[in-house]
Amino acid sequence: MAKRDPSPSTENALHDFPQGFAQTPVDTRHGNGGETQQVVAKSADHGDGQIHLTDNFGHRISDNQNSLRAGARGPTLLEDFVLREKIFHFDHERIPERIVHARGSGAHGVFEVTKAIPELTKAALFQKEGNECPVFVRFSTVAGGAGSIDTPRDVRGFAVKLYTEQGNWDLVGNNIPVFFIQDAMKFPDLVHSVKMEADKGYPQAASAHDTFWDFVSLMPETMHMIMWAMSDRGIPRSLRTIEGFGVHTFRFVNAKGEGKFVKFHWKPVLGIESTTWDEAVKIAGADPDFHRRDLYESIENGDYPQWDLGVQVFDEAWASKQPYDVLDATKLIPEEEIPVEIIGRITLNRNVDNFFAETEQAAFLPSNLIPGIDFTNDPLLQGRLFSYLDTQKSRLGTTNFHQIPINAPKCPFHNFQRDGLMQTQVPVGRANYEPNSLDEAGENSGPRACPETGFTSFRENGERNDGSEKLRVRADTFADHYSQARLFYRSQTENEQAHIRDAIVFELSKVNLEHVRTRVLSRLRNIDEDMAKRIADGLAMDLPEKAKAAKEPVDMKPSDALSIQKQAKNTFEGRTIGILFAEGSDKESIDKLKADVEKAGGSVKLVAPKVGGLKVKGGELKADEKLEGAPSVVFDAVASILMPDAAEKLTKNAAAIQWFADAFAHCKTIAHCKGTQVLLDKANVEKDEGVVPIEDLINVGPVRHWAREPKVRDLP
Length: 716
Description:
Elements: H1 13-16, E1 26-30, E2 36-40, H2 81-91, E3 104-113, E4 132-141, E5 156-164, E6 167-174, H3 187-194, H4 210-218, H5 223-229, E7 244-245, E8 250-253, E9 259-268, H6 277-286, H7 290-300, E10 306-314, H8 316-319, E11 341-351, H9 356-360, E12 373-374, H10 379-396, H11 483-490, H12 494-509, H13 514-524, H14 529-538, E13 576-580, H15 587-599, E14 603-608, E15 613-616, E16 619-622, E17 625-626, E18 637-640, H16 644-650, H17 654-665, E19 670-672, H18 677-682, E20 691-693, H19 697-700, H20 709-712
Parallel strand pairs: 13-14, 13-18, 14-17, 18-19, 19-20
Antiparallel strand pairs: 1-2, 3-4, 3-11, 4-5, 5-6, 7-9, 8-9, 8-12, 9-10, 10-11, 15-16
């Protein structure tokens, strides 16, 4: 059949005249009521369609300020199609938010293969070092709504969409390598329990309430994840400094059909960083969009966030010898047992042009895999394969959500699926089924399946499994709920352990049901007796009898890879230093310190009591932020260059005192000049290894000085 030109219906303005690029010459005038009216200038090119405001069907609008009325003070007329369309569209601008992961931030980037692994997978992407593909990454909190804060104690979603030549590969994970539950059957119950309580409608974006901990106390499989969520991993400093994990065990399949298990890791190049709980709470008040803003501004400034993709690869022979089941999503594989091998790097280098069109409409599906990567029998993963596809219909309104630009593949896609709500493609011919013989009549017969290059599932299914019976049962290899929780807790530093205990005390103090608190304590005794005792003391409760474990826990060798502090990087890269100055400060000293920090890879924000130009020694200097609007919690370290009289004046400013008091309490580096001492004394800042002269900032770095913590905080 002869090739036909595209249907005239595809020749429209959607691509020829994209939104948001008009530079319109404007005349400003005022209407009868004094309203401002900006209109296309009389001198403009009135043949230029892009500068003229229209309705959605291309009709130019003459007045965008006033409804059509029957007289100046009369009723609005129903015939006003401009008003009706504008209000109609506005009324339907919002779509249902995600049930979980509603609060998210995204960015575009590129993935590059740094080590080819053809011996492990036939995926085309990994056949050659240097192969690249575009990516879109969305980070999120889990429990809160779309308008909730960025810094609650919560899991963070880490979803990556790789647009490969073989189709989209969605690696939909979290910043924690394990999950609360083992079977997708319990996912609705988990989410219902952690969301706002059904009768009250609160708390928002918080797990510190009755129903969540009631669920946890009755589900011992949650204990490992609880250790992670209550650790500093639950309150990250930046989205740029979180790890990412595929959570589930997947499978690599090579060109010979040989399969091996694989766990996916994203390692942040900047290192892992967290906040303290007090800091996270104060950031929420100072800047609810802290993580979103940090990600956006870092990319805008050219400080592109990066993560290395690593894999843990192992076979069934190794898996069968472990005291846990590798198909259990509540378990991890210690990196000391199977080291993480780095095979690629992701770089986020472009912010979205429109948050709704891209970040909000992005649809991630664990079922999006490419040949060479396959599923396993992980029961949580199996449920997600259905759920993530199913939810897009209610959220995005159509089975054609794959045609939304952010979701569409960047390789050819052809099939016989037709029609549906909001269909934007115009298929040619009548071949909407196969097999067919329309080619014998000279017509296009459409695409066909290809056994050689198409996706094929790994054939074996006998790995410690008898598929001859249909059972609603959990394998007994899933029964150990405490050994890895103990492993995680005992792999932390002493003060990281204290943070976990403090977090659990706080959360349980918000639980009004005493029997729930008691049951949680009984479970914690299976993890660590001393931890349980200290938490009970923090709640002024007696330690209950230890809960019976389905399988007695065993001691596993501690893993440094599970601790943030044991992996801490002393670097200025990706860190922001706040420099406080005031009238009379030495501009030369400020400029030098700023240059030194930037040379070391960091960024600087100048903070002052006023944001306008201040007279300083050596000229005039403008602040980036006003003191009251830039508390020290938003910086990684602080410095001050103040004259004694200015510092004395600031001792009467509560924000200035709190600026230093918080930095000290949060164990940050404080670099100061001699003139600042009176203000430090007022803030009860004591000299230690992290309170240093201004000239020592570069050597000390923006690190946490955890030895200070016992002085500023009573931890259980």
